[in-house]
Write a structure and sequence with these properties.
By secondary structure, the chain is mostly helical. The protein has 5 helices and 2 strands, in the order αββαααα.
């Protein structure tokens, strides 16, 4: 038995049997609708967060052992990313689609926070809170 096979057996034992293998397609392509059994064109990158309704529960985040700082609205993307990283031995050229989806979600959340802050600042007549 090679070292790689031994490591794979060890990893397989660490994951629960209900874990599905990761999909090789980008996360956002999973959310486009089907038309008479034929897939439509994938939806645009900027609109995919609007279609994601699934959020990670507290139980899922604690099972995945996410640090408290990372338990946010993008945790549902971080859990499969971390699992992929573990399965692929943290090689930087692996899990690209998962990483991109997670970073895009983080960016969208940042833009929402900036827009909310601009809105609050505009309601105060441009006065800064700090």
């Amino acid at each position: 038995m090679t070292v790689t096979e031994t490591v794979k057996e060890t990893v397989k034992g660490a994951l629960s049997p209900s874990d599905e293998p990761r999909k090789s397609e980008p996360m956002w392509t999973q959310y486009h609708s089907m038309n008479n059994g034929e897939a439509q064109e994938p939806i645009a990158d900027w609109i995919y967060p609007l279609f994601i309704a699934a959020r990670a529960t507290r139980e899922q985040m604690s099972e995945a052992k996410l640090p408290l700082a990372y338990r946010d609205s993008c945790a549902h993307l971080l859990i499969p990313l971390n699992r992929c990283r573990f399965e692929e031995y943290y090689m930087p050229w692996k899990c690209v689609d998962e990483r991109h989806s997670y970073e895009k979600c983080q960016y969208v959340e940042f833009k929402k926070r900036v827009a909310k802050m601009d809105e609050l600042r505009a309601s105060k007549g441009g006065a800064r809170s700090n």
